[in-house]
Amino acid sequence: AMVSTQSTGSFIQNTAGTDTAAYSVDTFWLIICAGLVFFMQSGFALVEVGSVRMKNTKNILTKNMLDACIGAISFWLIGYAFAFGTDNQFIGADGFAVKTMDEAESEGSDKLYQGKTYAFFIFQWAFAATAATIVSGAVAERCKVVAYFVYSFMLTVFVYPVVVHWGWSDSGWASAFAAEEDRLFGVGVIDFAGSCVVHVVGGLTALIGAIFLGPRKGRYVEGKAKQMVFQSSTFQTLGTLILWFGWYGFNCGSTLTVQGTGADVAGKVAVTTTIAAASAGVTSTIIGFAVEGHIDIARTNNGILGGLVSITAGCSVVDVEIAFVIGIIGGIVYYSTSRLLQFLHIDDVVDASPVHYFCGVWGTLAAGIFAEPTNVEMAYGTGSCGLFYKCNGNGSKQFGANAVFVLAVTAWVGTFALIIFGILKLLNLLRVSSETEKMGLDLKEHGGAAYEEQSRRRSVWDSFSKSSKSKSPEGVVAENRGATQPGTIEESTA
After folding, report:
1. Most buried of 91, 387, 417, 472, CB within 10 angstroms?
2. Measuring CA to CA, which residue among 271, 375, 366, 390 is closest to residue 309?
3. CA-to-CA dists, residue 431 to 57, 422, 434, 491, angstroms
4. Helix (H) or strand (E) holding 220
5. Which of 43, 23, 61 is CA-nearest to residue 449?
6. Dist. CA 13–CA 170, nearest whole Å
7. What is the DSSP letter of 175?
8. Is 37 exposed, middle or buried, given 0-12, 13-18 or 19+ CB atoms closer than 10 A?
9. 21 touches 200 (CB < 8 A)
10. What are phi and psi of 218, to 5 degrees?
11. d(CA 156, CA 161)
């Protein structure tokens, strides 16, 4: 989420001192795109609610809402400074609570504060919230609320901001916006909107969390994966469409400006983003039909998301026909890794790690392979290119920079995720009890069921369990047919 308007340096540095109209337009552009990215939280909420049973509805919604709240406070106070502060190549050391950074930007200006600094913060906070929300769907239906609080806070306050500093700040060791002599292999990583910075971080955390938690009860029976009851394909599909819509703010907004070549780059990014999503969705649908014998809308939805993740790193530097290919391979990567998790008995409820981690790795490597020289010049103002092209030997350097960045981020996030989830499990703070899982987290942790009909059925079930002598069990069941239909609290965990 960083692109320069000159050959080197960050957006904020290069737009300081521009005319008032241009400054105002760019500030408005950031706010609008931040709103689109934040609206993706609605998409995540719908996808996740649609993928869980009714008895866990409040739980998943609570986590999605608090992702935004915890992310806002922690990123404002600390995370933003770690991400975009100066001092060293590893982590920022100033700009806490945004205030000091704003004061620095206002020096030499007739303005009392810089609105663009605040708009930039909001845009980056929306990205941070996205990274945290990715995790909640993977660990749904069996993760304790306290565990959620811990990993969400650590992700947005420290783990994610450090990766942002590496890849997007002016001083990060892998950043393409650092001084030329300080760039990794002389070129820096091309990760335009965050295939690695955002999606690998969230996806790998989701994968490790799902492994530590173990599968939901009944997910694997006698060594075979069993399809769990879920709430709504309608919610899943509407959520996917909202995410696709918000992705235009995610990718196009990462120009951070409409000055210079910014508007031109944003226009092309919109097309590459669309084509990759479409080709990935079609690919995963076809593969699913060939392997499973039917068309599964969930496969289509996740294929689309996998295509969007795959193009996010290179959306500004690849040609449209290459975006088509990246999407096709993204669809294959999603489907194959989803099946791999099933084979390994890893229960990722919404396929977050196949979509975000594995497709994020592919997308980052794809940018290092297919970055076209003219596009790189337009978006980054440098003379680099991908391995597929020749540009004074920079192709191999660019692929090397992207590959090293993927490995470094995987090691960093993997280490901290292992520590965080390992400690939570050791302290018995990670997974809910078998009784709570069977009854549903809504009742045990959120004061009641999400739906009135569900609460009524629970009351009837309690009456049945007490076996009143004045009414036979058959009479209770006859009055309340459907009390154990799929999706209700009383359903079998199998």
Report:
1. 417
2. 366
3. 17, 12, 9, 20
4. strand 220-221
5. 61
6. 9
7. B
8. buried
9. no
10. 95, -5
11. 7
Cα 382 from Cα 255, distance rounded (Å): 15
Burial per residue of 308-345, b for 16 or more beta-carbon CB atoms within 10 angstroms, e otherwise: bbbbbbbbbbbbeebbbbbbbbbbbbbbebbbebbeee
User: Cα(57)–Cα(52) distance, rounded to whole angstroms?
Assistant: 7
Does the pLDDT at position 247 exceed 70?
Answer: yes
Which pair of tokens denotes residue 339? 């099946």
Task: State the helix-helix crossing angle for 57-74 and 145-154, rounded to 10 degrees.
Answer: 30
Helix (H) / strand (E) containing 312? helix 297-312
Are the C-beta atoms of residues 317 and 368 closer than 8 Å to each other? no
Average pLDDT score over residue span 75-87: 92
The Cβ-side half-sphere exposure at 324, using a 13 Å CA radius, reads: 3
Yes or no: say if 54 and 450 are a contact pair by the CB < 8 Å rule: yes
pLDDT band for position 392 (50/70/90)? Answer: confident
User: Which stretches of 182-231 are DSSP H helices?
Assistant: 201-213
Q: How far apart are CA 121 and CA 101, in angstroms?
A: 10
What is this structure's pTM? 0.89
> H or E element: which one contains 470?
none
Q: What is the pLDDT of residues 433-478, one digit of tens each?
A: 999 999 999 998 898 999 876 666 655 555 555 554 445 444 444 4
- Cα distances (Å, whole numbers) of residue 133 to 175, 195, 259, 467: 25, 15, 32, 43
Q: What is the rounded CA–CA span in Å between residue 309 and residue 453?
A: 38
Q: How far is CA 113 from the centre of its chain?
A: 32
Predicted pLDDT at 114: 81
Instruction: Supply φ then ψ for residue 16, to 5 degrees.
Output: -65, 130
d(CA 64, CA 44): 8
- pLDDT value of position 112: 74
Residue 222 buriedness (CB in 10 A; 0-12 / 13-18 / 19+): exposed
Report the SS3 class of residue 8.
Answer: coil
Residues 54, 454: Cα–Cα separation, whole Å = 8
Q: How far apart are CA 262 and CA 290, in angstroms?
A: 42
What's the pLDDT tens digit per position in 407-438? Answer: 999 999 999 999 999 999 999 999 999 999 99
Q: State the residue for tokens 């931040």.
A: 34
